Amino acid sequence: MMPRLFVVDYSYQQCKSGHRHCGDVVFVTRRQDSTIVILADGIGSGIEAKVAATFSAEYLFSLINENFTGIEAMKVVIRSLRRAKLNNGPWAALNVVFFTGSGEINAYSYESPQPFVITARGLEMLAFQPLHWSGEVVQEVSTHLRPNEGLLLFSDGVTQAGLGRSLPRGWGEAGVKSFLASTGLDSPVHAAAIPAVLARKAATFNDNQPADDITVLALMLQKPKVLYILTGPPGRRGDDEKVMAIFLAKEGLKAVCGGTTTHLLAKQMGLTPQVVPGKFGTPAHYELDGIALASEGTVTLNRANNVFDTPELAPEAGYGVARLLELLYDADEIHFWVGQAENPAHSSTLKPSGFLARNEVVAGLAEKLQGAGKLAVVKKI
């Protein structure tokens, strides 16, 4: 059975000479069943172009959130862009890719250079087919990628580099492909390095003063690093054994946050957790074979949430917090299993200011993880 795949993205940008803001924007949205990637190149320069690109991308996402299919959303956006083009409104060129967890992709290219596939054999062209929507031509392709394959996307600041100057017809897709082959970078093992190398090379054709914004984006498929976090007992006491058994059967690293929950899990495993007291007022944690972290619960989660964006402060918050953040930073997918059993301590009027209840702090952490480019899923049990 094909493993569910995760889209890892690497990108690099250079602004058009004389501008501080890039008119190309990249959006990556990860969901349980799919990942959507947009590279939008806004008309104009600087802030004006950035606004146009952002508007187009966010419009497409809003349609997807309203349960439009990918092709339905693309048709509506193209119709809108057609009107904008005719009326001198905010317009953008687009590359849009829809990935499924099994590696199936649907890609659409509108007024943009078409993506390459990155394979162990080098870069390969995709067989795009033209679609005619609302008086516009959109290129479409559907294909399947395997683990450790991916796509290379770039804005026309790359393909048109040197246009009318050092390269009368611009660098072009053929130039991009030839350059990466000559440097030996046209393979999945070098995917992380491709964006910066390619963008910097494109800039040299204009004496390092790009005539347009330059964006390069490599999207690679890999088996995800998965972390499951169990925090709090199930809402129904009779579900304890069933939930613990299902949790333990999941593939991936496992962590548990909560003293009671740790003991429930240990009982299911036939083990006795060993308590390791916290130092200088930090939360205690436990040693439990086969579990990446077993710690006290809501306090650990709150402290991890508070220092998520300042990891250098984690050691001061204690071992449990530091280890939890280490696991979160390293994972691609994080699945929170949040027990709904009532905890009298959480309803106390004496809890510290800013201290969030379990459901609230998990929601906050999940939002930060999504913002960091990870897939975060919250399941209430």
Produce a short descriptive summary.
The chain has helices at residues 46-65, 70-86, 156-159, 172-183, 194-204, 240-249, 259-269, 298-306, 314-317, 319-330, 358-371, and strands at residues 6-14, 24-30, 34-42, 92-100, 104-110, 116-119, 122-125, 129-133, 136-144, 150-154, 214-222, 226-231, 253-257, 274-276, 285-287, 293-295, 333-338, 375-380. The chain is α+β, with helices and mostly antiparallel strands and 381 residues long.
The level-1 CATH class of the largest domain: Alpha Beta
According to DSSP, the number of beta strands is 18
Largest sheet: 7 strands, mixed
The fraction of residues assigned to DSSP E strands is 25-35%
Instruction: Look at the structure and give the mean pLDDT.
Output: 94
Cα end-to-end separation: 28 Å
Key traits:
381 residues; 18 strands; 6-stranded antiparallel sheet; alpha+beta; 2 domains; Phosphatase 2c, domain 1; 7-stranded mixed sheet; elongated
Would you spell out the secondary-structure blueprint of this structure?
Layout: E1 6-14, E2 24-30, E3 34-42, H1 46-65, H2 70-86, E4 92-100, E5 104-110, E6 116-119, E7 122-125, E8 129-133, E9 136-144, E10 150-154, H3 156-159, H4 172-183, H5 194-204, E11 214-222, E12 226-231, H6 240-249, E13 253-257, H7 259-269, E14 274-276, E15 285-287, E16 293-295, H8 298-306, H9 314-317, H10 319-330, E17 333-338, H11 358-371, E18 375-380
Helix pairs in contact: 1-2, 8-10, 8-11
Describe it for me?
The strands form 3 sheets. The chain has a 7-stranded mixed sheet, with helices on both faces. It has a 6-stranded antiparallel sheet with strand order 2-3-4-5-9-8. It is an alpha+beta fold and 381 residues long. It is elongated and about 75 Å long. It has 11 helices and 18 strands. α1 (46-65) runs antiparallel to α2 and α8 crosses α10. The model has no long low-confidence stretch (mean pLDDT 94). The protein has helices at residues 46-65, 70-86, 156-159, 172-183, 194-204, 240-249, 259-269, 298-306, 314-317, 319-330, 358-371, and strands spanning 6-14, 24-30, 34-42, 92-100, 104-110, 116-119, 122-125, 129-133, 136-144, 150-154, 214-222, 226-231, 253-257, 274-276, 285-287, 293-295, 333-338, 375-380. Helices cover 33% and strands 29% of the residues. The two termini are 28 Å apart. The protein folds into 2 domains: 6-222, PPM-type phosphatase domain (Phosphatase 2c, domain 1); 226-380, no CATH class. β12 (226-231), α6 and β13 form a beta-alpha-beta unit.
